[in-house]
Predict the structure of Four helix bundle protein.
Amino acid sequence: MHNIKKLKIWNESINLCVDVYKALASMPNDEKYGLSSQIKRAVVSISSNIAEGAGREREKEFYYFLNIAYGSSYELQTQLILCEKLNFISDEINQPLQNKIDEVQKMIYVFKENIKKKII
């Protein structure tokens, strides 16, 4: 088991979540239960799955949950691109978020690869 509060990957995913929630504050009200809701589920899923995996006893289980977090990061990336194309958020808001998503994705990938070496 890992102490999630000490995991940089978890802390960065929490920071991403806060930034995404702030960015969504300006979205149209009619999107609260549409795309906005999907985005919130995806961004929360990243840190939640990292936490759930960290709390498991076996590295193989952690690897599994990191894969889910990794997939959620791509889902989030896609949804934010859609928001920009639909003019729900600006490029000035989206670009920093995309950069943070890229960083979190890299961190998850490296973490997964390190765990993979242990379980193979």
The chain has four helices and no strands. The mean pLDDT is 93.
